[in-house]
Amino acid sequence: MGALKVGGVGEFLREQRRSAQLSLRQLADAAGVSNPYLSQIERGLRKPSADILQQLAKALRISAETLYVQAGMLDARERDELEVPAAIIADPSINERQKQVLIQIYESFRKENAAARAEDADGPEDADGPENDDAARAGTHTDTETDTDTTTHTDTGTDGERHTRPVPVREETGNDDHR
């Protein structure tokens, strides 16, 4: 009877364990699983549950989402959406309130960007190009010159909304050195 070969999660776990300089027994103890069970996972004979993968990830100090992708439980796009909150939660240098605030800010930016992408898909293309939209949605600002003596300044406010306001154009001096 041949091996089940459960994706590359077993091989990946073995590589992570070795790079963490842990023995099979040390990782098994840290993750709360038996030594033979972990050995079978590494050899591709057993398929670990999401809970076991989470315990292994914690013991290895890596993202559980990374293991979920390796095991085929999560696609890479979903992993990307979860990695930032997971990194925030795992950071011991910030307190719980700060973690919650950071996650809320991150989620509000993601929602705003998704809404803007949907709006862009439904509406006509902006004349100033998508690169300016990306900069505006990322919380930076965009200056767009018009045919008048003003420029449009777009940024994302603290309320998460995009704001556009006219700004007078500075005269060109021919000297780009602003010391």
Detailed description of the structure:
It is a single chain. With 179 residues, the protein is mainly α. The protein folds into 2 domains: 9-76, lambda repressor-like DNA-binding domains (434 Repressor (Amino-terminal Domain)); 103-168, no CATH class. 53% of the residues lie in helices and 11% in strands. It has helices at residues 9-19, 24-31, 35-42, 50-60, 64-70, 76-90, 96-122, 130-137; strands at 141-145, 150-156, 162-168. Helix 2 (24-31) crosses helix 4 (50-60), helix 4 (50-60) crosses helix 5 and helix 6 (76-90) packs antiparallel against helix 7. The relative contact order is 0.07. Residues 134-144, 159-179 have a biased composition (Basic and acidic residues). Keywords: DNA-binding. Residues 114-179 are annotated as: Disordered.
CATH class of the largest domain: Mainly Alpha
**Helix proportion range:** 40-55%
Mean pLDDT: 74
* Poorly predicted runs of 5 or more residues: 1-6, 126-132, 140-150
State the domain count: 2
Corresponding CATH architecture of the largest domain? Orthogonal Bundle
Structural class: mainly alpha
What's the CATH H-level homologous superfamily of the largest domain? lambda repressor-like DNA-binding domains
The percent range for strand residues is 5-15%
Report the biggest beta sheet as strand number plus sense, adding barrel if it closes: 3 strands, antiparallel
* Separate helix tally: 8
Global geometry: elongated
Pfam families: HTH_3
Region (Disordered): 114-179
Biased composition (Acidic residues): 121-133
Domain HTH cro/C1-type: 13-67
